[in-house]
Amino acid sequence: MTHLNRRQLITAAGAGALALPLGVTAARAAAPAAGPAAGPAAAPGGAPAAYASYPSRPVTTGAESEAANGWKSLTGQKVGIITNPTGILTNLRTIVDEMHEAGTVDIVGVFGPEHGFRGTAQAGGSEGTHTDPRTGLTVYDAYGANAAKMEQLFRTAGVETVVFDIQDAGARFYTYIWTMYMAMRAAVATGSRFVVLDRPNPTGGTARGPMMTTAYTSGVGAKEIVQAHGMTVGELARFFDAEFLPADAGGRVSELSVVEVEGWRRDMPYDATGLPWVTPSPNMPTPDTALVYPGTGMFEGTNLSEGRGTTRPFELVGAPYVDYRWAEKLAAREIPGVGFREAYFTPTFSKHLNKVCGGVQVHITDPTTFDPMRVGVEMLVAAKSTYADFAWRVDNDPRPYWIDKLSGSTRLRDQITAGASADDVVGAWSAELAEFDRRRQQYLIYRGPAA
Fold first, then answer.
1. Taking residues 191-213, what's their average pLDDT?
2. Does domain 287-428 have CATH number 3.20.20.10?
3. Residue 51, pLDDT score
4. Helices 372-386 and 324-332 sit at what angle, rounded to 10 degrees?
5. Of 265, 272, 274, 382, which cross-links 58 as Cys (Cβ 3.0–4.6 Å)?
6. Per UniProt, which keywords does this protein have (predicted)?
7. Does residue 39 surpass a pLDDT of 50?
């Protein structure tokens, strides 16, 4: 377990220096698990060949380690748990049910994020505050709660220790990390301890994409991080605690603990972890969905369907006005790690309900070379240049374009509208990405070729 407090902040030794995070020994950093830094060759049939090059021992989540220790670090405290259906053990039971039945943890409240604690709500919804019928525990509605609301909920429940255990999807506009951030701010106000039961980032450990700007922060990007942050929630908690909380909350968490994932490497595809995949939200059915999401999620900011209402959301993208030309143009780009299949689908809800849409299905051919941000930009550029009906989605906000809140500024929209190439769009964020990557290094816990 990594224990952090104000006195234990590790600072970089100099510009560009890589400090070892707390709990990572010099030997561990110098000798990461064996495996190639570059992508593996393809196996027969097109599947990545080198999953065998990753460590054969199973990946163990923070929750599993804590359960194996009898939840000892949580006993004798009034515990509030922020979790959802992904907060499970290898026996596929939730940590809340396990702790409750064990009787060793005093759970004073469960806090449900977007989609709810038991996962019954669709995008943009929650389960409300209620009594959980299985455990009898009070479940508080934490979706969209700001720091003041979260503080009120913690005080109402009498929380002394906050536990966060949710499988993130690795994209800035996935809301669970902002629920965690608001909870951390509330923990500062209430003097609560904060414990993260860590899980792998399904997009890997490489940071990608543009930086959020302060003018475009919102519930889908509350602070200035890049679009695909390449960090686990435990690493993000360390980053938030040092980089944002002092200014936003007037101080840092009194005690921040990260129960680490064992056996995970930054270049490891989720399918190589051996962990079960539980949908973090109704439209995130597979690890491949999570891998494409930081890029194709940007289509939420357009008039194309991002595949909601199909069995392959964010992998199927299209609109009634799209034809075969989009797939052909994308295939001709020969983008590493991905193929594009001409596809037709009819969404059963959300955009273009019950209308036949032409478009593409994004097929990941090599997750070790696949770059979701590059793919998303290539798709946007090709769609805008091919179809006169392409349009950016407008909402009721003084900042009217949803894509600006997803990408962090007006720049991406302005460039693509003006006819910029994908190379120009991706190149525009290189400096800010490099600066973010430099800043985040001292908070990283896990190493490997992609660190």
1. 97
2. no
3. 56
4. 130
5. 274
6. Signal
7. no
> What pLDDT, on a 0 to 100 scale, did the predictor assign at position 29?
31
Instruction: Express each pLDDT in 269-289 by its tens digit.
Output: 898 999 999 999 989 999 999
Longest C-alpha distance within the chain, in Å? 63
Fold designation for 2-278+436-443: Rossmann fold (3.40.50)
Q: How far is residue 24 from each of residues 65, 370, 444, measured CA to CA in Å?
A: 17, 28, 9
Instruction: Name which of 224, 236, 234 is nearest 257 in CA terms.
Output: 234
Mean pLDDT of the chain: 89
pLDDT of res. 380: 98
pLDDT at 241 over 60: yes
CB 364 within 8 A of CB 338: yes
Q: How buried is 279 (Cβ within 10 angstroms: 0-12 exposed, 13-18 middle, 19+ buried)?
A: middle
- Segment 361-411, tens digit of pLDDT: 999 999 989 999 999 999 999 999 999 999 999 988 899 999 999 999 999
Per-residue pLDDT band for 53 (boundaries 50, 70, 90) equals low
Quick check: 118 and 133 in contact, CB under 8 A?
no
Q: Which residues of 254-266 are buried (b: 16+ CB within 10 A; e: fewer)?
A: ebbbbbbbbbbbb
Question: Comparing 2-278+436-443 with 287-428, is the CATH topology the same?
Answer: no
Please, which residues have CB within 8 angstroms of residue 272's CB and are 6 or more apart in sequence?
51, 54
